């Protein structure tokens, strides 16, 4: 008997494919779910900090204090609204109606123009540090700008000594969609891939059809490949749909090469299908597999992949841990291919790691599967 | 009541019978909380900086030393020659380029423009790089007396509730809310979908119990399980990450019960649409992912388009995660609690009405 027969694998492949087509709901979900998620969320994820609710109280009521508050208002960071007294500002922050409270002390103008120090109290809601962190970094600049505004000095007159010009490469306008759509696609394709294969093996055990499959001459390798390939095709079709949406509807540029992106995507999909399959092989109960699929799939894929939180900021230990998930490397590849377009040679490390992951995971599946049979 | 107790025993025994399942349900949420909260930080670190400090440019050297000293930046290796190319090829995240002839000379002549080149493939990183770097340059310039005029305005800044701006304090409450939601959703949806798949739902329907009994019997045991999960992850979160618990314990427990109204309703509704566990699993993913992204628990919702802000407003998870965060860090009063609870209860009732209507007790 041959060790690997294309015909036998093909038989399992077509059996699995029939399963998929017999359940149109699953088929529809697998294809439409990534599409729907990208369409709904592609527009919504806005990483630029702006329009933070800011309560202000002006006890000075002078031209200077007005200009100071104007500087806050014109910065795009804040959406200012007035309150009657500073205590109310505290309550607003507790109630989450404001994230920032700015309160100008009485005699502000007198102090600033008279050579003293004008006091401004600022309260920040540290409980939501995703937006407040940016504000803290920005306060210094606001202070400078406000003073110049009070003195009526145009900013350029002072800045001639030393000034900055910042240029952003690859995403010059810091377009949030260009950033979030490729990342979102990667996350959602990974999720669907895990969820598709995580039940394939244990379902057969639960229903008792596994014994039948095992009594055929098909080898473990043929069974595993026959189970993975249909879902790989399905996931890849999902990827193509998402790619079209990203390009056509969200206008994300594509600077890379199709071959590079497709190769990366295939390795990535294979890695996640293998994770799902590994869960499926490790248990004979669908219930257990679902629990583990959600534990391994849902949050870690979102949190540890660099989709929202940059991996580089994490401690070394966590960086290593996030490397266990193929999404971390694919995230770099897909963002690069959309916006930058490096050649596959420049990205060889990422590709090697992604390929290694897929290979190790598939081998692990095979080994585990053989062991459960014994 | 007797009927409910029967259901209760049936569901709990099912859970206790399988030790692997029990570990997955009861222990893994705590592991996730610790691992994920520990991993996430919004504080920039390890940003690779390339600076051309050639030609005895004292000022550039100063800026560079300040940048490395700040702890945010590290030197990008082998990028001394062409810093612009270093960013283009991805060897560095950011490059500082001095004007021709060096920054020191340019400033002495009366005007030096520093060019900052940032890789913005990751816009989150790009933005923090700009903010951090401006701060670094201003500080370096201050030290050398080339600064903007010193302002007489003093910002007396106080950061409330999380004085160190520790991201973990923000993440732990969010993750508690998310994990509770996922637990409710997965346990209830799968429990119903499993009975549908194996056909045992028919046995249940043929029993002399009403459809309300069946629904309650499916929901109540898992509310209890989720409550235990929530308690365990709360305690572990508080101990491991040293969070304070400022608010009222009673409010925390009531908040959980209020959230269970829409939380379980979503699970039952989802179960109505699914025939087997595979469908249920895909359904769980779409619901959990959308709820998560539109909740403000990970990503702020304030800047979303209006339509999605409305969705986020009726999203029970967003109210619950705000409530959990507020109770743990701020200690809100009961009127705050009432506002969020009201929305959750209303949304919950609407979903329950649909879910019960759709729940079939005929074959």
Describe what is shown at a glance.
The complex is a heterodimer of chains A (374) and B (363). By secondary structure, chain A is of the alpha/beta class. Chain A contains 16 helices and 5 strands.
Question: How would you describe this protein?
Answer:
Chain A is 66% helix and 9% strand. With 374 residues, chain A is α/β, with parallel strands linked by helices. Chain A folds into two domains: 6-45 and 174-373, no CATH class; 52-159, abc type-2 transporter like fold (3-Layer(aba) Sandwich). Chain A has a four-stranded mixed beta sheet, with helices on both faces. Chain A is elongated. The two termini of chain A are 20 Å apart. The mean pLDDT of chain A is 87. By secondary structure, chain B is of the alpha/beta class. Chain B has two domains: 2-40 and 165-358, no CATH class; 47-144, D-Maltodextrin-Binding Protein, domain 2, CATH 3.40.190. Helix content of chain B is 67%, strand content 8%. Chain B contains 15 helices and five strands. A four-stranded mixed beta sheet of chain B has the order 2-1-3-4. In chain B, α4 (58-69) links the parallel β1 (47-51) and β2. In chain B, α3 crosses α10. Chain B is elongated. The two termini of chain B are 26 Å apart. The chains are: A alpha/beta (374), B alpha/beta (363). The interface between A and B is large, with 122 and 117 residues.
Key attributes of the depicted protein:
heterodimer; A: alpha/beta; four-stranded mixed sheet; elongated; B: 363 residues; D-Maltodextrin-Binding Protein, domain 2; 15 helices
Write the layout of secondary structure elements.
The complex is a heterodimer of chains A (374) and B (363).
Chain A lengths: L5 H17 L1 H18 L10 E7 L4 H11 L4 E5 L3 H9 L5 E5 L3 H6 L4 E8 L3 H23 L3 H5 L2 E8 L6 H22 L2 H8 L1 H6 L5 H29 L9 H25 L3 H18 L12 H7 L3 H15 L7 H26 L1
Parallel strand pairs in A: 1-2, 1-3
Antiparallel strand pairs in A: 3-4
Chain B lengths: L1 H16 L1 H8 L1 H12 L7 E5 L6 H12 L3 E3 L7 H6 L5 E4 L5 H6 L3 E8 L3 H22 L8 E8 L6 H32 L1 H7 L4 H31 L7 H25 L3 H17 L12 H9 L1 H14 L4 H25 L5
Parallel strand pairs in B: 1-2, 1-3
Antiparallel strand pairs in B: 3-4
Helix pairs in contact in B: 1-10, 3-8, 3-10, 4-7, 8-10, 8-11, 8-12, 8-14, 10-11, 11-14, 11-15, 14-15
């Amino acid at each position: 008997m041959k060790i690997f027969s294309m015909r036998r694998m093909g038989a399992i492949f077509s059996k699995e494919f029939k399963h998929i087509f017999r359940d149109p709901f699953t088929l529809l979900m697998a294809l439409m779910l990534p599409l729907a998620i990208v369409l709904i969320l592609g527009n919504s994820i806005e990483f630029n900090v702006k329009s933070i609710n800011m309560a202000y109280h002006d006890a000075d009521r002078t031209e200077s204090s007005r200009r100071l508050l104007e500087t806050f208002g014109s910065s795009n960071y804040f959406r200012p609204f007035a309150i009657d007294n500073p205590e109310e500002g505290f309550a607003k922050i507790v109630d989450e109606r404001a994230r920032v409270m700015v309160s100008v002390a009485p005699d502000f103008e007198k102090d600033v123009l008279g050579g003293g120090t004008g006091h401004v109290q600022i309260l920040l809601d540290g409980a939501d540090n995703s937006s407040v962190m940016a504000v803290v970094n920005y306060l210094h600049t606001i202070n400078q700008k406000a003073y110049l505004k009070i003195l009526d000095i145009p900013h350029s007159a002072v800045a001639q000594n030393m000034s900055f010009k910042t240029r952003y490469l690859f995403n010059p306008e810091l377009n949030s969609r260009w950033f979030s759509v490729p990342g979102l696609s990667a996350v959602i394709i990974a999720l669907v891939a895990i969820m598709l294969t995580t039940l394939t093996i244990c379902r057969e055990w639960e229903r008792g059809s596994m014994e039948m499959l095992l009594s055929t001459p098909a080898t473990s390798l043929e069974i595993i490949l026959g189970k993975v390939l249909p879902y790989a095709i399905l996931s890849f079709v999902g990827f193509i749909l998402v790619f079209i949406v990203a390009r056509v509807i969200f206008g994300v540029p594509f600077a890379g090469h199709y071959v590079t992106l497709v190769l990366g995507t295939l390795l990535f999909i294979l890695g996640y299908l293998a994770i799902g399959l590994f869960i499926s092989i490790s248990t004979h109960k669908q219930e257990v597999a679902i629990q583990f699929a959600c534990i391994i799939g849902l949050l870690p894929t979102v949190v540890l992949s660099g989709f929202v939180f940059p991996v580089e900021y994490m401690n070394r230990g966590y960086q290593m841990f996030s490397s266990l998930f193929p999404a971390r490397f694919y995230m770099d590849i897909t963002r690069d291919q959309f916006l930058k377009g490096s050649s596959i040679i420049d990205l060889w490390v990422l590709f090697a790691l992604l390929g290694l992951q897929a290979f190790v995971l598939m081998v692990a599946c095979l080994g585990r599967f053989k062991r459960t049979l014994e | 009541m007797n009927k409910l107790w029967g259901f209760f025993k049936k569901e709990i025994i099912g859970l206790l019978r399988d030790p692997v399942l029990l570990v997955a349900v009861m222990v893994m949420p705590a592991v996730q909380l610790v691992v994920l909260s520990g991993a996430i930080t919004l504080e920039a670190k390890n940003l690779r900086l390339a600076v051309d400090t050639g030609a005895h440019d004292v000022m550039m050297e100063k800026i560079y030393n300040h940048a490395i000293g700040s702890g945010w930046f590290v030197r990008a290796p082998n990028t001394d020659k062409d810093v612009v190319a270093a960013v283009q090829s991805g060897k560095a995240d950011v490059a500082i380029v001095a004007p021709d002839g060096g920054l020191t000379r340019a400033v002495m002549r009366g005007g030096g423009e520093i060019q900052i080149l940032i890789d913005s493939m990751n816009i989150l990183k790009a933005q923090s790089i700009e903010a951090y770097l401006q701060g670094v340059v201003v500080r370096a310039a201050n030290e050398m007396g080339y600064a903007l005029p010193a302002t007489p305005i003093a910002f007396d800044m106080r950061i409330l509730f999380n004085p160190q701006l520790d991201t973990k304090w923000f993440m732990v409450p969010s993750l508690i809310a998310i994990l509770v939601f996922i637990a409710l959703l997965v346990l209830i949806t799968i429990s119903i979908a499993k009975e549908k798949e194996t056909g045992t739902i028919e046995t249940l329907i043929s029993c002399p119990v009403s459809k309300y009994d069946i629904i309650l019997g499916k929901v109540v045991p898992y509310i209890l399980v989720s409550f235990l999960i929530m308690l365990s992850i709360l305690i572990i979160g508080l101990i491991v990450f040293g969070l304070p618990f400022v608010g009222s314990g009673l409010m925390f427990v009531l908040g959980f019960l209020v959230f269970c109204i829409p939380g379980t309703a979503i699970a039952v509704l989802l179960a109505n649409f699914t025939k087997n566990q595979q469908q249920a699993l895909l359904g769980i993913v779409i619901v959990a992912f959308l709820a998560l992204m539109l909740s403000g628990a990970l990503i702020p919702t304030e800047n979303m388009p209006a339509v999605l802000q409305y969705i986020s407003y009726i999203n029970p998870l967003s109210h619950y995660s705000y409530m959990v965060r507020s109770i743990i860090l701020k200690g809100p009063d009961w009127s705050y609690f009432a506002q969020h609870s009201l929305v959750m209860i209303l949304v919950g009732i609407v979903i329950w009405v649909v879910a019960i209507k759709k729940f079939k007790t005929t074959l």
